[in-house]
Structures are given as C-alpha cells and as structure tokens.
C-alpha cells in the first residue's frame, strides 16, 4: 500500500487525497453484501418451511462465500497496489489506533464469519447448493459440532453488527461533527 503525500491547494488548505477507486468499490460492495447477509440470515426463522427458504439459504451461502473471496482479494490489493490517504493531520494517536483496531477487527470478522457458516453447513453432512453447483456430502454428519459452528456463526453476527455499527457511527461523527474529509475519502 502507498500512503499519499498531502498537497497544498491554491487556497492554502491541505488535501490528503482519497482511497483509490478499486478500494472504494470493494468497500461499498462489501457493505452491500454484509447488509444482504444480515437481511437474509435474519429472515430465516420467519421463512423456514416455505418454498423460499432453500433458495434464500442457497443465496446466503453463495453471497457469503463470495464475500470471503472479495475480502481476500481486498487484503491482497491493500498490501500491494492500493493508495491510501494519510490520517487527517492532528488526529490524536489514540483515535488513529481505535480506527486501525476497528478496521482489523472488521477484516478478521469478514474472514471468520463465512468459515463458521460453511462449517455449520458441511457438518450437517448433506449435499448443499452453492453458486450453480450442488456440492456433495463432504463430511460425515456431526450434529454437535454443527450446532457449535452455528453458535459461533450467531456470535459472529452480533460481533459484526457491533463493530460495523461502531465503525459506521465513527465515520458519520467525522463527517457531521468534526466536519473533516474522512468519509469523503471513502465515498464512491
Ligand atoms: C459475512 C458473512 C455472513 C453473515 C453476516 C451471515 C449471517 C447470518 C445470519 C444473521 C444468520 C441467522 C442466524 C440465526 O440463526 O439467528 C445466518 C445463518 C446461517 N448462515 Fe450465515 N452469514 C454469513 C455467511 C455464511 C456462509 C458463507 C454460509 C455457508 C456457506 C452461511 C451459512 C449459514 C447457515 C447454514 C445458517 C443457518 C440457517 C438455518 O437456520 O438453517 N452463512 N447467517
Ligand atoms: C458492513 C459494514 C462495513 C464494513 C464491513 C466496513 C469495512 C471497512 C474496512 C475493513 C475498512 C478499512 C479499510 C482499510 O484500511 O483497508 C473501512 C474503512 C472505512 N469505512 Fe467502512 N465498513 C462498513 C461500513 C461503513 C459505513 C456504513 C461507512 C460510512 C458511513 C464507512 C466508512 C468508512 C470510511 C470513511 C473508511 C476509511 C477510514 C479511514 O480513513 O481510516 N464504512 N471500512
């Protein structure tokens, strides 16, 4: 990743620059996928037993695996060709650390959450639909471990909701209260 150098505008203000286009695209694509995962996952209870349920579960698994791949690609892009603005000048050290910690936690959760969902599915020991394929039974049915993976998946939902909520509120706080360009740097 390359950190941009702030430039001085003709009116004397400093311009930090923005995240590169692909980073911004991947960020908002991730947000759309996470919203879909929450919306689909949280409607499972209501839809269970209806003909819509298996189709929605297939979409949920597919989008979740796609999100995992997007996150891996995003991390590769971040560590190679991405360009990032520096932190706003004067942003206290503890706020820089809080932002970094939240963002690493988000990357961690985006990688772990699909894995607990996939483990839950595989440990049910049945064939299942993913993308356009039917994946055959890959593991013997181990219901206790499947329930454990399900429990991890549920905890992951709350953790992701809390950290992403905090992160979004922080971005809005920068925009509306501190009136800096933190949010603008990530907008499409
Ligand atoms: C970031 C990605 C994901 C998020 C945010 C997410 C979110 C959710 C939510 C909110 C639920 C409902 C939890 C509940 O029971 O109250 C759920 C259930 C579930 N998810 Fe995910 N999920 C993700 C990825 C995946 C993936 C990749 C798979 C499988 C390949 C998967 C498989 C499942 C299964 C099997 C259930 C339980 C369905 C049932 O009740 O039978 N999830 N998920
Ligand atoms: C599902 C929800 C979200 C997830 C998973 C998420 C994830 C992330 C991650 C991982 C980063 C770090 C980028 C990097 O350093 O590589 C980031 C940065 C950022 N996000 Fe989000 N985000 C979410 C929602 C939002 C929302 C709703 C907003 C705006 C209201 C937002 C605004 C920003 C901004 C402004 C940055 C750059 C922060 C900085 O300069 O350090 N995000 N996001």
Task: Give your account of this protein's structure.
By secondary structure, the chain is mainly alpha-helical. The protein has a single domain, classed as Fumarate Reductase Cytochrome B subunit (Up-down Bundle). It is built from four helices and six strands, in the order βββααβαββα. α1 runs antiparallel to α2. The model has no long low-confidence stretch (mean pLDDT 96). Bound molecules: protoporphyrin IX containing FE (2 copies). The site of one protoporphyrin IX containing FE (HEM) has 23 residues, from α1, α2, α3 and α4.
Fill in the CATH topology. Answer: Fumarate Reductase Cytochrome B subunit
Rg over alpha carbons: 20 Å
Instruction: Compute the number of strand runs.
Output: 6
* Count, helices: 4
Residue windows where pLDDT falls under 50 for at least 5 positions: none
Bound molecules: protoporphyrin IX containing FE
What's the architecture in CATH terms? Up-down Bundle
Q: Provide the domain count.
A: 1
Overall residue-averaged pLDDT value: 96
The N- to C-terminal Cα distance equals 19 Å
Q: Strand share of the residues?
A: 5-15%
Largest sheet: 2 strands, parallel
Shape: elongated
- The amount of helix comes to 55-70%
Q: What is the string of helix and strand elements?
A: EEEHHEHEEH
Output the CATH class name: Mainly Alpha
Helix and strand content put the structural class at mainly alpha
Note the main attributes of this structure:
two-stranded antiparallel ribbon; 4 helices; two-stranded parallel ribbon; binds protoporphyrin IX containing FE; single chain; mainly alpha; Fumarate Reductase Cytochrome B subunit; about 190 residues
